[in-house]
Amino acid sequence: MAEHVILFTGPMGAGKTTAIQNLSEIEVVSTEANNSERHIVDKATTTVALDYGEITIDGEEKVRLYGIPGQKRFDFMWAILKKRAEGMVLLVNNDAPDPIQEMLNFIDDFRELYDRGGVVVGVSRSDVGTGPSLASYSEALERANPGMVIPVFTVDPRDGDQMQDVLLALIVNIEMRAAFGAMMARSV
Amino acid sequence: MTIDAKDLPRESPSVSMGFPVTVGWTHAAMAINSSLRLGTAVNLTMHVEMHGPLLIDFKNHAFSWSTPLELFPVDAVHTGLETSPTVEDGPPFFELPGEDLDGLLWVMGINSFGGARAYWLPEGERYQLTRWPNLTRHNHTMRQMQMIAVLGNTSATTKELATVVGVEESEAQSLVNALSLMGVLYRSTAEPEMAIVKPTAAAKRKSLFGRLLKRLGR
Known about the structure:
The complex is a heterodimer.
Chain A: E1 2-9, H1 16-23, E2 29-34, E3 45-57, E4 61-67, H2 75-84, E5 85-93, H3 99-109, H4 111-115, E6 119-124, H5 134-144, E7 152-154, H6 160-180
Parallel strand pairs in A: 1-4, 1-5, 5-6, 6-7
Antiparallel strand pairs in A: 2-3, 3-4
Chain B: E1 15-16, E2 19-20, E3 22-23, H1 26-38, E4 42-48, E5 52-57, E6 62-64, E7 77-85, E8 99-100, H2 101-110, E9 126-129, H3 142-153, H4 158-165, H5 169-181, E10 185-188, H6 201-206, H7 208-216
Antiparallel strand pairs in B: 1-2, 3-7, 4-5, 4-7, 5-6, 6-8, 9-10
């Protein structure tokens, strides 16, 4: 059976578990535990190992959705999963102290995926407070890797249609990057 | 003032309140594009029959309108337009945050020029995306998403874009008009390094995007 691994990453509380719950056709396997870092994010539980969900296509192909813990101390798991991953949805909280730097840090950790166009950034909690504009995220990404255009969307991880849009944009961008990526050498 | 849209020639001027009374959004798109490229701070008020005034604050990239974009009136009758100069540190035109102007530019760009090339786009240019539009907030089709992904990874003419995705050229042109109005397109006349061709049937079958679309019923 063909499989496609998609990662959901980002800092604690950005909505990774909720996003997968809204996409998966099976009940999501979640491993959560009490949050020992409530001074950072006021959330009772947080993912300590993995969330797992899936979408089956025509009974012969699976899109596997893995939510991986946001805390840096779990980065040994990132190394294992990113080898198998085709793409990554990076969720960031717009009301975090420095969400753009946080995004860039995650991009650095998942550079291989980013370089082949396999990243979509979802900015959650954009309706809360006054965080950076969406254009600011895109500009920061452009500075980090000129010529690479990565989709950046505002998202509500509770909204299934929005999460489908995010997943589909990721997949189509990977495919178009594979088809035309070599032509980007010129660039803007 | 009551105007029967049936009696108006589409997009042809019949002066009222200093602005041609028009049906549709082409003249409005032209006015907005001019204001955006002007480089000086202005506020703009559009009078849209039965839909109240549409206020645009370019400096804050926001608009205010009593009509939600989900109910965007494609055949709206425009009866007037006023611009008022402002200054960089001047007060906002209306209570902020208002609505993100990109949402209005997207829907206006898609629904103007009737699938023809926007007047500010010279013939024969190639286009490439500089920033993805916020598709989770803009009503869009999956073909539009596909075309945006193409433009995010290569430069293409509208004809090439239509060929790659398998749509009418007018549909590709409407998308290009909208992206251009939003200011997220790089334009050039340079030839690409390789030909952009229609995908084969085998390539289409191989596409996870196509299969996932079907699976999700989109």
